[in-house]
From TrEMBL:
The gene is FPGT. It comes from Acinonyx jubatus. Transmembrane segments: none annotated. This is Fucose-1-phosphate guanylyltransferase isoform X2. The keyword Nucleotide-binding applies. Keywords: Nucleotide-binding, Nucleotidyltransferase, Transferase.
């Protein structure tokens, strides 16, 4: 989209000067808040924010906060929103009624993209910038125009999506109406089944515009295609003036396509936020998962009905009080307006799974050209990637010239020696591989620093990029239904000489999965950790025995409990300094 480059330039100018002057009032957000699932995640986010501010990588004069969910039951991003409102009230009292606030939901454990599990989805590295930009900087750049065209209130967004759009030169997206205001993107009906869909009130423009302000009759959350038709959410081709309407995670829509308008981020004014806060204070403790989209937005618009509160088909865990809380939210918000900013030339990208991550960073020419993504981003690697089709993607890493990385693979924050071969469609994160090693195609390999009993240790999770870490079974007899690298998990345990006992799993013993299986060795050096985990991976692929009996074994769940954020940041910083020094020497030699 044509606007993005200028927005990113404006963002860089906002914090790029060495003077460190704070931004002027009204020029940027008053508050940027990130949600965290637990205290360990909260600490990790605060450490990374502190590092960024110390290096002046973020605009100064802004209040940056991390708001952690209360301990106990999962409360979903809707619950996190309510919790954040309470935190704002405690910190600022009545003052926040005049603030523009950006709230970024980043409280999940990223089980579908585990290289973001330890340090957070909002700190996912992107393949461009010097230093490397992360999702946080991208969000701040994408939304740079919003605060100056917004009445006091809160803009709510997720950490793993990207919204790009194009509007007229003198047009701006405005968030200045009472109630809720949401962005809407034209999408295929198939995409609509996994998103929120707006049923818009009729309008009488002669032709569609890039930017339209519409009223929403009702909001559908992950509807079926039949429901989209039934509730008149489906738009049919008219005199649309664009060759392609939108794209992103789907093929651009052509003129002859039926389409729907799907959601991304939304805004609520301060009055509405206070109404939700009063509701939260009244109920006290929340013991069920509330969806900020499904449970807030479905209550809005003149066509909203209470039926959705009893529909639990999109709920991951059905708690007893869920229906009651949903109904109370419905009656609280009923009659509140849902304004929609229709962006007819926009693209929505989601980078929350290994599949999406690999596609957008290596194969997707659309996102590459929009953001200026690079195949080799702030790295040392003399091999030139192929120019057409799929390429590999190297992010802040040091790779020996004798190393090979096949197409479709991403390597980030790693050191790879001369005899290392990375197969196709792999993700390699935070690793150090000095000795000869082969990473099979479709491998996921990610190393974490750990602090265990006061000692620094390392553990490397290794599995297939298509493995489902969230899939769980309730009994030990059913673990044969789990798959590791496409192989029956029970067969893998035999290869590793591990017995099937309750001790094999951490945490909840009635929710057994690859996520909480104790199969990854803890080692005293980073390179040993990677080498050992690669041996267990190759043993499964080659069906050859490799005993894990002599190792202290951890689950991914336990790795996140023991993670040493400071050491992981230090490791990344060492790579950064080495690349910086190498570039300076190269410039000196060139001159």
């Amino acid at each position: 989209m044509q606007n993005f480059r200028s927005y990113f330039k404006a963002f860089v100018n906002l914090h790029g000067s060495s003077s460190g002057k704070p931004v002027a009032a009204g020029e940027f957000w008053d508050i940027v808040a990130i949600t965290a699932a637990d205290e360990k995640q909260e600490l990790a986010y605060k450490q990374q924010l502190s590092e960024k501010l110390k290096k002046k990588e973020l605009p100064l004069g802004v209040q940056y906060h991390v708001f952690v969910d209360p301990a106990g039951a999962k409360i979903g991003n809707g619950g996190s929103t309510l919790c954040a409102l309470r935190c704002l009230e405690k910190l600022y009292g009545d003052k926040w009624k005049s603030f523009t606030i950006l709230l970024i939901h980043s409280g999940g454990y990223s089980q579908r993209l585990p290289n973001a599990s330890a340090l957070g989805k909002i700190f996912t590295a992107l393949p461009f910038g010097n230093p490397i930009y992360q999702m946080l900087e991208l969000k701040l750049a994408m939304y740079i125009d919003f605060p100056s065209h917004m009445k006091p209130g809160i803009l709510i967004t997720c950490a793993d999506d990207i919204e790009l759009y194009s509007v007229g030169e003198c047009e701006f997206i405005r968030f200045d109406k009472p109630g809720f205001t949401a962005l809407a993107h034209p999408s295929s009906l198939t995409v609509g089944t996994t998103h929120g869909v707006f049923v818009l009130e009729p309008f009488n423009y002669l032709e569609y515009k890039d930017l339209e302000y519409r009223c929403c009759h009702r909001f559908l959350h992950k509807p079926s295609i039949e429901q989209m038709h039934h509730f008149n959410a489906v738009c049919r081709p008219g005199n649309f003036s664009h060759q392609d309407m939108a794209g992103g995670d789907t093929t651009p829509l052509k003129l002859e396509s039926e389409y729907v308008y799907t959601d991304s981020l939304f805004y609520m004014d301060h009055k509405t936020a206070k109404k939700l806060l009063a509701f939260y204070e009244k109920i006290g403790t929340l013991n069920c998962e509330i969806d900020a989209y499904g449970d807030f937005l479905q209550a809005l618009g003149p066509g909203a009905t209470v039926e959705y509160t009893r529909n639990t088909s999109n709920v991951t865990k059905e708690e007893a009080e869920l229906t009651d809380i949903r109904q109370r939210i419905f009656h609280l918000l009923k009659g509140t307006s849902l304004n929609v900013v229709v962006l007819n030339k926009s693209k929505f990208y989601h980078i929350g799974t290994t599949e999406e991550y690999l596609f957008h960073f290596t194969s997707d020419s659309s996102l590459k050209s929009e953001l200026g993504l690079q195949s080799i981003a702030f790295s040392i690697f003399s091999t030139t990637p192929k120019c057409s089709g799929n390429t590999s993607c190297i992010i802040q890493s040091i790779l020996d010239s004798g190393c090979s990385v096949a197409t479709g693979s991403v390597v980030e924050y790693s050191r790879l020696g001369p005899n290392v071969s990375v197969g196709e469609n792999c993700i390699v994160s935070g690793c150090s591989v000095i000795t000869e090693a082969v990473l099979p195609a479709d491998s996921f390999v990610c190393s974490l620093s750990l602090k265990m009993n006061g000692y620094l240790k390392y553990s490397t999770m290794a599995f297939g990029v298509q493995d489902n870490l969230k899939r769980n079974v309730k009994t030990l007899s059913d673990i044969k239904l789990l798959q590791f690298f496409g192989v029956c998990f029970l067969s893998c345990l035999n290869i590793w000489n591990l017995k099937v006992t309750e001790e094999l799993f951490s945490g909840n013993k009635t929710c057994l999965s690859l996520w909480n299986a104790r199969i990854f060795p803890a080692c005293s050096s980073l390179s040993d950790s990677v080498t050992t985990s690669l041996k267990m991976l190759n043993a499964v692929q080659n069906k050859s025995a490799f005993s894990l009996n002599k190792y202290k074994l951890l689950s991914i769940e336990e790795m996140l409990i023991y993670k040493d954020v400071e050491d992981m940041i230090t490791y990344r910083e060492q790579i950064f300094l080495e690349i910086t020094l190498n570039r300076k020497q190269f410039d000196l030699e060139a001159s």
